[in-house]
TrEMBL record:
<dbReference type="InterPro" id="IPR000850">
    <property type="entry name" value="Adenylat/UMP-CMP_kin"/>
</dbReference>
<keyword id="KW-0808">Transferase</keyword>
<keyword id="KW-0547">Nucleotide-binding</keyword>
<dbReference type="GO" id="GO:0019205">
    <property type="term" value="F:nucleobase-containing compound kinase activity"/>
</dbReference>
<dbReference type="InterPro" id="IPR027417">
    <property type="entry name" value="P-loop_NTPase"/>
</dbReference>
<dbReference type="Pfam" id="PF00406">
    <property type="entry name" value="ADK"/>
</dbReference>
<keyword id="KW-0418">Kinase</keyword>
<protein>
    <submittedName>
        <fullName>Adenylate kinase isoenzyme 1-like</fullName>
    </submittedName>
</protein>
<dbReference type="GO" id="GO:0006139">
    <property type="term" value="P:nucleobase-containing compound metabolic process"/>
</dbReference>
<dbReference type="GO" id="GO:0005524">
    <property type="term" value="F:ATP binding"/>
</dbReference>
C-alpha cells in the first residue's frame, strides 16, 4: 500500500492518478469517496453532507468502510493500493494500518506553501480545509513516526519530472513484493 501525502496543492491527486495509470493500482481518495456518496444521495452521503455543512471534515473512520468495500470488490486482481491525501496524522495512520493494511511507502510531496496556494486557486473544492498550521504540525509527527517509510519528493517541479522520481521506487516495491497483493478476509 502506498500513501501519497503533502500539502494541499502539492500534486497528490495528480501523481496518484499517474501511478494508477502506469501500475494499475486502486486509487482511494477519501474526499472523493465522500463527494460520491453525497452526490448519490445515499444515507451515508446525507450524513456526510450534514457534517460538511457544519464546516467539518468527514472523519476518516467513517470513510474507511467504503474503502474496505472497494478493496474487497476488487481483491482478486489488485496490483496495489494508493491512498491519496491520507493519512494526515498518526491517529489516521494507525487506523489505516489496522483496517486496510500496512503501508509499504509514503510518498511525501514537498512544496512551498505559496506554490501550493497558487495551484489551489485554480481548483474549486467544496470540502472543508484543515488549517495549514495544524496540518503542518500533524504531518511533522507523521513524518517522524514513519521516517523509515517516507519518500520525500520535490513536488514543485513539472508533473512528469515528479513522476519520473516516483516510478523507480514503485518498481522496486513491486519487484520485491510481487505483481499482485493478497487481500485477506
Amino acid at each position: 500500500m502506498v500513501w501519497v501525502v503533502g500539502p494541499r496543492g502539492s500534486g497528490r491527486t495528480t501523481q496518484s492518478k499517474k501511478i494508477v495509470e502506469k501500475f494499475g493500482f486502486i486509487h482511494l481518495e477519501p474526499k472523493a469517496l465522500v463527494d460520491k456518496e453525497i452526490n448519490a444521495k445515499t444515507d451515508k452521503g446525507k450524513g456526510f453532507e450534514a457534517v460538511r455543512q457544519q464546516g467539518e471534515e468527514v472523519p476518516l473512520k467513517d470513510v474507511i468502510p467504503i474503502m474496505e468495500q472497494l478493496i474487497m470488490t476488487n481483491r482478486g486482481g489488485i496490483k496495489g493500493i494508493i491512498i491519496d491525501g491520507y493519512p494526515c496524522d498518526t491517529v489516521e495512520a494507525k487506523m489505516l494500518e489496522q483496517r486496510i493494511g500496512p503501508c509499504d511507502v509514503i510518498i511525501y510531496l514537498e512544496a512551498d506553501q505559496q506554490i501550493c496556494d497558487a495551484r489551489q486557486e485554480q481548483l474549486i473544492s467544496s470540502s472543508p480545509k484543515r488549517s495549514q498550521n495544524k496540518l503542518d504540525k500533524e504531518t511533522k509527527l507523521l513524518r517522524e513516526q514513519y521516517n523509515n517509510k517516507m519518500l520525500p519528493i520535490n513536488g514543485e517541479r513539472d508533473v512528469n519530472e515528479v513522476f519520473e522520481d516516483i516510478v523507480p521506487h514503485l518498481q522496486v516495491l513491486i519487484k520485491n513484493r510481487g505483481e499482485r497483493i493478497t487481500i485477506g478476509r
